[in-house]
Q: What sequence folds into this?
């Protein structure tokens, strides 16, 4: 469904990505793990057209490499950016409305807002509050809810569980499961490698801009190198 | 009795001058909010608005009120054009480059004005309906002094609705804070920037028309002083903040008129008032009355 071919990203001399290839099949959960600075966020941002890149991105077989971000979103790809990035001056509800910016079906939009509120009741209580006044965890919920509002076919999440209490982490992963059951495809970047690999159909391991390992989630969980480097298993 | 009615006269004048500053200041502050750019050509856009109205009334068969409606829309489109030609190609460049381009655009518009409109001052054709004086107590006040604040308030209410209640307005507020995340929502950044320039230039033109009715003399350099003062108004109010720009505009307009009224000896320093106020604000509260902390956009 989404194919990334020989992707390079340069930041003024720094080679953040040096030719990586990813394949994400429809209705799968795919995870991308790696240490800090490995290039995970760069990968997602490059797919969304937020950073200059070389290589190719295919979506449903079509080349979307040069599309501007707004059109990539219209194709059905959404992203939860790293570090929440909610619009602090806008209310919770306005953030959600903007998440649906590409849609014009008013009724369905308000139904989907309710659905986000059902998923995150905390947001409903605070719907008129400015997003900047929410706690970090609540902002993360809002960022996820906002991305869902575009009704994406592919949802890319950059460390959605970062800084959340264990219960909320569980909630987020629960949502990821629900989304998959609804037919969505998910590309998940996570620090929480164990939780991500447990759920992932397929995983990629990124090290300083290059893919060093890939395979089904369960297989990667068993891999010695992965266990040592990302799962904190010592032997 | 004389004192009170004279005071009221000054008040009316101050409020209407403040309205004009406010209308122009909004354009500075909206553009700054989105692009972090001081659009030095904004005062010249104001000038163009007045000239377009002037030619519309004198050289087209259209009734004046229709010209008053069409000219701001045309000026708005010129604002869009200004952004596309002078600023958009430099969007990735260092901020100083864009700023220099803005100064260049300002000179270009002024000199084009001199070439096309001529350097000689012209008289603005004030419609008779607007050229009336009402007597209030012992003093006479031009009805325009009442009409200007009313139109300004109506426009401000419309703008307020647009910014706060419409999806495009929300997108504008989002864009002012975070380009990347706004585009992740599917927002067309170029479109929103164009709308911002359109609205700012349109309001400047409305201000310009009312300026022409109030002070009926046109010159290609007429935008400089009102532009500068409105910019100061925007800074006083907190640049980037629309309510602040309006507040700053009224403070400046009222202050200027009252200074001349209460201390006639200082009349010659009228234009200096804005700058003194600016210096005070920059010393006391550099972010302006309503400005948040000055933050760098990532
Ligand atoms: N805008 C930028 N300018 C310059 N260098 C950058 C920029 N963004 C990222 N980098 C560099 O590119 C490399 C990859 O960064 P990236 O953010 O993709 O890593 P990451 O895997 O998401 O890390 P983390 O887990 O810390 O979020 C890093 O070395 C980083 O310093
Ligand atoms: Mg990252």
A:
């Amino acid at each position: 469904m989404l194919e990334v071919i020989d992707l390079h990203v340069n930041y003024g001399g720094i080679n953040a990505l040096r030719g990586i290839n990813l394949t994400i099949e429809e209705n799968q959960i795919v995870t991308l793990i790696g240490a800090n600075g490995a290039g995970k966020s760069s990968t997602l941002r490059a797919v969304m057209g937020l950073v200059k890149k070389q290589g190719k991105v295919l979506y449903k077989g079509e080349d979307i490499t040069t599309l501007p971000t707004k059109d990539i979103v219209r194709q059905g790809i959404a992203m939860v950016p790293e570090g929440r990035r909610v619009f602090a001056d806008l209310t919770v509800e306005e953030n959600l409305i903007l998440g649906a910016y590409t849609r014009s079906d008013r009724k369905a939009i308000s139904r989907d807002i309710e659905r986000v509120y059902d998923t995150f009741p905390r947001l409903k209580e605070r719907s008129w509050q400015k997003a900047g006044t929410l706690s970090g965890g609540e902002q993360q919920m809002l960022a996820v809810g906002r991305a869902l509002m575009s009704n994406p076919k592919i949802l890319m999440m950059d460390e959605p569980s970062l800084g959340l209490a264990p219960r909320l982490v569980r909630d987020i992963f629960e949502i990821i499961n629900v989304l998959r059951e609804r037919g969505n495809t998910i590309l998940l970047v996570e620090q929480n490698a164990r939780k991500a690999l447990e759920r992932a159909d397929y995983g990629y391991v990124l090290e300083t801009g290059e893919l060093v390992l890939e395979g089904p989630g369960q297989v990667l969980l068993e891999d010695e190198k992965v266990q040592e480097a990302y799962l904190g298993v010592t032997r | 009795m004389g004192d009170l009615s004279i005071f009221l006269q000054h008040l009316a004048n101050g409020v209407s001058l403040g309205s004009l500053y406010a209308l122009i200041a909004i354009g500075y502050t909206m553009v700054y909010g989105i692009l972090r750019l001081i659009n030095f050509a904004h005062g010249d856009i104001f000038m163009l608005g007045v000239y377009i109205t002037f030619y519309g009334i004198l050289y087209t068969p259209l009734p004046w009120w229709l010209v008053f409606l069409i000219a701001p829309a045309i000026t708005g489109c010129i604002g869009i054009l200004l952004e596309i030609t002078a600023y958009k190609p430099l969007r990735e460049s260092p901020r100083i480059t864009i700023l220099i381009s803005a100064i260049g655009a300002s000179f270009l518009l002024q000199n084009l004005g001199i070439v096309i409109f001529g350097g000689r001052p012209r008289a603005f054709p004030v419609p008779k309906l607007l050229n009336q004086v009402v007597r209030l107590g012992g003093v006479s006040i031009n009805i325009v002094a009442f009409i200007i604040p009313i139109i300004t308030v109506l426009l401000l209410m419309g703008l307020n609705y647009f910014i706060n209640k419409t999806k495009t307005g929300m997108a504008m507020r989002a864009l002012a804070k975070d380009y990347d995340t706004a585009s992740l929502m599917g927002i067309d950044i170029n479109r929103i920037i164009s709308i911002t320039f359109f609205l700012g230039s349109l309001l400047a033109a409305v201000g310009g028309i009312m300026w022409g009715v109030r002070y009926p003399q046109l010159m290609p350099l007429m935008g400089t002083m009102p532009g500068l003062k409105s910019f100061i108004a925007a800074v006083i109010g907190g640049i980037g903040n629309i309510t602040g720009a309006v507040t700053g505009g009224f403070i400046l307009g009222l202050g200027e008129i009252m200074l001349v009224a209460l201390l006639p000896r200082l009349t010659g320093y009228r234009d200096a008032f804005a700058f003194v106020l600016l210096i005070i604000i920059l010393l006391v509260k550099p972010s302006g009355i309503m400005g948040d902390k000055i933050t760098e956009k990532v």
